[in-house]
Amino acid sequence: MYFSFETIPTFVWVFIATYAIYLIKKPRLSKNEPPMVPYKYPIIGHTVDYALNADNFLVECRQKYGDPFNIYVFGQVFTIAGNEIAHEVYKQSDTFSLTIATRDMFPLYRVLKSVLDPGTLEQVVKTIREGITAKLSLYTGRLQKQIMTYINKEIGDCSSPKLIKTANDNFASMIARPIADVLVGQEISKNEDVIKAFADFTKDFTKILAIPPILSFIHPKVHTQVITLPLRIGFNPILKHLITLKKHLKPVLEKRLKEKKILGEKYEPPVDIVEYFLDNPEYETKAITDDYLTKITEFLFSIVVASIHTTSRHLTSALYDFAGRPEFWDDIYEEQLRIDKECNGELTPHHINKMVKLDSFLRESLRTFDAVASTPHRCLESYTFKNGMTIPKGRTVQTYLMDIHYNTTAYGPEPRSFLPYHGLENNFSASRTDKNFFMFGAGKHACPGRFFAVSEIKIGLHKLILNYHIRTPSGKVEKKVHYGPFSEPPVAGLIFESRKK
What class, spelled out in words, does domain 114-366+423-498 have in CATH? Predict the structure, then answer.
């Protein structure tokens, strides 16, 4: 290879730039920090292992370096907290912030400006607890009707086996219907454009985040600025969803305000989050202005982000777990058939609670979802764990979910095996959080919508199992799709065949 004299300065500057980045980005650990796992490649660190083989990589790190330990990924030091330490992180809610860490990794505030307001999250949590969880019994019948609407429309008659592809939406439309019913009421939830807006909102936003954080090697904020650049220059793939909801929501809000004024105490308020919002003194209004409409629309989509995408993924995953395990089909079907006869097809919370085998199966599906590490928390001030290790202010702590969900103390010598009745045998419901089950978080900041989500999934599974034989194309358990430490349901599709009545 020939090198001219002119190329020498180029190589020199490349070498200097690379070495400068190395010096700047070289991890600098404080005293008494968790051990840093050694890595081979400067600047890159553990990025390749973490991105391509997170499960095996973190298992090996845990065995060699204990809990917690530090890794260096995409230009940042992360502390990985497993079964022994994660509980301490979740208990120290004043020191570790899930909200700030998530906001940096999932910059939704670029679209929903109200997300930046610290009071928004508190209001969302309060709304879910008071407006949804506390009124769950009032929603049960409506959830069933919406789910059956989806089943009849999208799956329908399967007298001959029908392959339903799941890769594109993971039954998001099935979950979006009852969510829309609860959030915006029965008038709007029948509108297919609104259903589509709810189902596609999170999916369309995550397309922006699909770019690997390569620029984080320079600085995490550089990556965030680049991936959100389209939003700042006017290309907003989810703006259409906001416009759709505002269009259909405005006449409903105006109608309700008018009826309240005319009827006074005789006004019968609908049971939904829109009405809860209108009744909140903080959001009281005499006219539906565009600013007010934007505020309530962004608030509703804040709940959508936290509900539809996650719930639909876990419903889909549970269907795959059921479809690939024929040894449990009859047992779970018989429970659903018995409950269906008891309630004459109209489920109540009492009947949903009696689905103990289905509930236990769902809990196990959630436990074995195979997300390796997730739920980041930002350390707001230097913190020393009870074991004496200290992490500095600004550090992100990742929850090592597999270390929690696959620990031998709780789940026996083969914790990675599927234990469908572990929850039933130990009196653990699918919505219950404990030190060995972090699917919904832990402590006082555990997901407030988990009771609604579990009920929704159980109703969906109940109706589908009652109406169809469901199996995988291979006849076996399909493998989940992994993206670094994250997982998604399989994409092989599910075969539905109508049961003979």
Answer: mainly alpha
